[in-house]
Sequence to fold (376 residues):
Amino acid sequence: MEIRKSSWAEISAAALKNNISVMRSLLDPGTKICAVLKGNAYGLGIVTIKKYLEDNGLCEMFSCGTMNELIELHEKTGSRSEILVLGFCMADELEEAFTAGLISFETSVFSVWNAGQFFAFEKLAKKLGKKIKVHIRIDEWDSGMGLGHEDYFRLEDELFSSPYIDICGLFGHIYSSYDEDTVETERELKVFDDFVKRINPAYRARITVHVQNSALIFKYPSYSYDMARTGSALYGMPFEDGGKLKPVMSICGTVFSVHDVDKDVPLCYEAKNVTDGTRRIARVMIGYADCPMLLNQKKVYVLIKGRLFSLADEACMDNLCVDITGNDDVSVGDKAVLLGKPGVNAEEIVSRNGIDHVHCDWMLITAGRLEKVLVE
Fold:
């Protein structure tokens, strides 16, 4: 029996294709794209997104944030493509996952943040009799976020001569990439570029170098190197893209009740209904647990029949109460959209609520129970 969904997230395949195409047009020819899937693909569904991108050959590599995400991807999508774990992993995590057959030696790639981690991986690889693939994370300031520049060059020959570790990549993160301070961003990029130029040419030829995130693809496309990582832009978050990116996710619900409510009737837990007279209220079965960061904004609007409506009160018992007073054509079964369409797209929500663009992808965070539906 097919059960009609009360709330769901629509994932636009056309928007994914469009956004990849926009970014490829900016990058140097031959630059690989790594799709960032951390945080459940920014809320869009880690399995759904990887399967679609992989099946359609839209990117060359994937990355995730944790070992658990890597295990889930291996179990539910197979191991056709390489997946880089961007977060820090302990050697015992790798041993447990490899020994249990939960991940693949061929397609699992791990970030190395410091020398101690590298040598722990090396010891494990020797024990298992297999090579472990890694990307070295570089940190200008030696702050614990990667291997410091001078430490790298002191260890370079030793690292690359290991018979047990396959160093197949090297990457950096530009801390100021989302700031308006272009002077600092350009300084950090130059420092990274100077570092890359010092790498032994024989080793450089063996590795994939990447430093671009979503913001840098649009601001500084010339720093393509071999690969660019994209998460926010892939999913259609606003950047300096001239409106070329399209929102990938729309958060939707169905109106299940339309009711005229007197001013004395409470609409939620704290009964804040203080409006004189009667209001017409439409209820939609979606709540804080479904899209917490979106519903916690000060100004939340819902799009129904192409018109914007404000909330009559807070979400309560997993349903929204929407004030549709004066709109008698809204009825049970109508589709309500909270994110992803004109009027409730990311750019407008960011502007209305004064959200810093570096944090705008928070609104994509969704709960696992919010079903993800791929639409063409």
